[in-house]
Amino acid sequence: MSASALILKWLRRSEDAAAIGLLGLLILSVATFADVIMRGVFNAPIYGLSDLVEIVTPPVVASCFPAALAARQNITIRFLGRGLPTRAGQAVEVFGQAVTLLVILGIVWRVGDYSWDIFDNQQVTWLLNIPAWPSWFLTSLLLAVCVPIQCLVLLETVANLRQGNPLLPDHPELDGQTGNESRG
Amino acid sequence: ETATLRFSSAFSPMSANNRVSVPAFIEAVEKASEGTLKIEHYPGGSLGKSPVQQLSMVENGITDIAEVVVAYTPGRFPELSVFELPFLAETNVEAGLAAYSLYEKGLVSDFEDLMLVGIIMTGPYALSSAEPIANLDDISGTRLRVAGPIQTEMASLLGATPVGNVAAPQIAENISRGLLEGAMMAPGNLYNFRIADAAKHHMWDLKLGSVAVIFPMRRDTYENLPPKAKAAFDTYSGEWFTRVLGEGLDKQQEESKAKISADSEQTVYTWTDEQIEEVRALLQPVVEEWNQPNENGVNLYEEAVSALESVRAQN
Amino acid sequence: MDPIIVGLLGFAGMLSLIALHVPIGIAMAMAGVIGFAVLTGNLSAAIAMFGTETAGAISSPELVIIPMFLLMGAFAGTSGLAGDLYRLSNALIGHRKGGLAVATIAGCGGFGAACGSSIATTATMARIALPEMESRNYAQSLGAGSIAAGGTLGSLIPPSSIMLIYAFLTEQFVVDLFIAGILPGLLTIGIYILAIYVVVRRNPALAPAGERATWGQTARVALSTWGIILVIGIMTVGLYGGIFTVTEAAAAGVLVTMLFAFARGKLDRASLRRTVAETAYSVGMLYTILIGAHIFSNFVTLTQLPSALIEGIVSLDLAPLLVIMMLALMYIVLGAIFDSIAAMVITLPFVFPLVTVGLGYDPIWWGIVMIVVIEIGMITPPIGINVFVMHGVRRDIPLRTIFRGIMPFLAADIVRLLLIILFPAIALWLPRTM
Ligand code: NA
Ligand code: NA
Questions:
Q1: Nearest-angstrom CA–CA distance, A142 and A60
Q2: CA of residue B255 to ligand 1 center, whole Å
Q3: What is the pLDDT of residues C23-79, one digit of tens each?
Q4: CB contact under 8 A, A123 and B141
Q5: Span C366-378, average pLDDT
Q6: Could you check whether the bond before residue B124 is cis, i.e. omega within 30 degrees of 0?
């Protein structure tokens, strides 16, 4: 399978991950709204809502990173590459994707380490003393998914460089199924 | 050779700590180090905005000393919560010094790789409300902002509805819009967070506990300092800095109370000794949870009480 | 090496990385980490910022309001609720030249009254208003420009998360700031409308007039807008009636718009997938920029660049009004090169005492001035967050086109900034009388 086809497959998967993450956001919204009702009508706010926010928020946000990466949604300015000859432009693009991979590796490594510290120190939520590590392990896992995705994106760009393909218009993926045809 | 340390805080550069106490500490240590030490002060989150990450920032060397609110990393330094119990400390200075003496006795866990440069026990907490609070009936049924499990339990025992998920800077807004009636709050912070603008009824006779803020530094950072810098730290970190921090907050607390008392729009209620005794009895269950040996066989409540007594005896 | 030189090299390095196709957030993070390592000589501490800043941002209970408002915006689009407002606008003023751009500004103001972030306002209105304007053959530059500029109303019209940050850092009462923002917000709407009027008069082809709707059509359209009016009503009444906090308003917005999408039969597999993907893309993109900006601003702090700037200004010993003007200019320049909120946070420790104690200006007024300047920074090239958000929602519109569309609004912004500086009563009259 070519890198492009693999990216598409991973894009679908990462969108599924984001869907589950945003389901978490919906749960958070429902709980927050239930708290308004409980507080306003019954004068009995939900004890431990802040614990839920604490646990749910990091994986919800982390679940969005792989999809944004697979769909190349991070804002990039490509004036230079477009002004250069095709191969030089692709070479600049390879550089940009490689630096992105480095930063992602740094983030995954350091957040993973932070999650391990939370496990190691037996950190808990504020009110209910729920262990905090499962939420952070899940968060680290979701961020780690970014690594293979960015590797594929980098591989694809290297292939484009070797084949001398022109730079794509920015983000054809946004129209849904995606501009893989032109990517070859 | 001059060593440089970074001292960071996620809180406002205008806070009493960042405006007065921390600069006083830096000045004293730098002077005593005879040019071997320089401490750069980074308040207002300019070296890392998240208050939750400050401890991590120290452990990773991004900063060397930070202002760390212990409540943001529950499960770490659990012993310090004992000072959140009611009717313990009366002032910031004595609470801080008592907590520091527990640390020196090795009763506070998790300090193998860290050392305590100073400690604050903000408090004692009291009550501020948008409605009169002349007696327990007034408190009953009100929505009260609380911080942490002990305050939550105290609010419930007082008959109020504890509301836990409101960040301190949002208290005033929530009171002024009627989402909250009042808050458990240290009187010194009433102007900081502009709570006095929204809650104009105050009662300071119940001492509702003190909340820990620590200033940790890595032990290896300390060990690697030049000898004179180390000696300067030995003199000014710990008790000296803890006292300066406490005095700064006590002064702020007195100013804040005086300002409120002089303001005709604000009302301060004085509760009788009988009322206070009634509350003391009401809150006894929270105290009892701590008044027993913990997993290490230490009765932290008794330790805190005796530490406070010896601090009072010395001052 | 002199920290200020390292700072300047760091800026140059970041801009070079951006030119070399490194995504903006990633470039800021990379430049920040390298610069931090150079200044402290501690590489492992610098790399640790990847962890502390990422963990801090993705777990922040304040920032999670942004994904909520984005999801709400996506549901508002999917359900057709957002389109309703534009059908009504079109029926009422669409037949005038530039009518829909005016309606966009008013819509941004209305949405800003329920939303605390100019980023979320821009993202939501981009989904709602742009397709409508395009279907009526508006120039993309005018359409995108009016949304990116109108989005700044999200921060100026209360509630506002920047006001929360300012109030927190300077210990002001946030409700005072909220109230102080109302008149400047209305003034902005008025001046933006004037800008549209001038632009369209000079080049009528930018905004073709539509057909005038009949009274019957208008009435029918008006009836169909009850849904969106209900949503804005719930959020506004909830916020000012003391029922909701900002987070709760966002949660209510998500639930109500989702229920509308469901009830109107618009939630099938495909549309749900699109809603999720759109939200996830924006959330991932925004948090990447936030994390990068935080890392970079930690480095900038170490370089002492901001304090050097302030000291330079103070040493000139100028008239107070001139200093204010220079500060405003400095923030526009700082905001042009990097994240504007970071610029405020870093400089506040020096600027706030200078302005309020040194020059004796009112802290609430200065808060409003700062927010206006910061919002200008959010639409100025090369780094204008609102423009990026606009571009993030609609990748087919080049950044250049959006920045071109911004220009008339930028001119309007300068006028309004001068008005607020010269007539502090615009900000202070309401909070003083209320
Ligand atoms: Na707003
Ligand atoms: Na800008």
A1: 9
A2: 35
A3: 988 998 999 999 999 999 999 999 999 999 999 999 988 778 778 878 887 888 788
A4: no
A5: 90
A6: yes
pLDDT tens per residue, range B123-150: 899 999 999 999 999 999 899 999 888 9
User: CA-CA distance, B272 to C424, in Å (whole number)?
Assistant: 49
Please give the ipTM for the structure prediction.
0.91
Q: What is the pTM of this model?
A: 0.85
Q: How far is the CA of C122 from the centre of ligand 2 (A)?
A: 15
The token duo for B19 is: 């405006």
C135 Cβ contact list (under 8 Å, min separation 6): none
pLDDT band per the 50, 70, 90 thresholds, residue A183: very low
C16 close contact with A: CB closer than 8 A: no
Phi/psi region, residue B98 (left: phi>0; alpha: psi -120 to 50; beta: rest), is: alpha
Report pLDDT for C417.
94
With an 8 Å Cβ cutoff, is C50 touching chain A?
A: yes
Bond preceding residue C382 cis, omega within 30 of 0? yes
- Residue at C178: amino acid letter: F
C244 in contact with chain A, both atoms CB, cutoff 8 A: yes
Q: How far apart are the CA of B81 and the nearest CA of chain C, in angstroms?
A: 23
B112 by DSSP, 3-state: which?
coil
Please give the Cα distance from C100 to C200 (Å, whole number).
12
Give the span between the Cα atoms of A31 and A49, in whole angstroms: 7
The helix (H) or strand (E) run that includes residue B38 is strand B37-42
* Strand, coil or helix: B274: helix
The nearest alpha carbon in chain C to A99 belongs to C22
**CA distance linking residue C28 with residue C403, whole number of Å:** 21
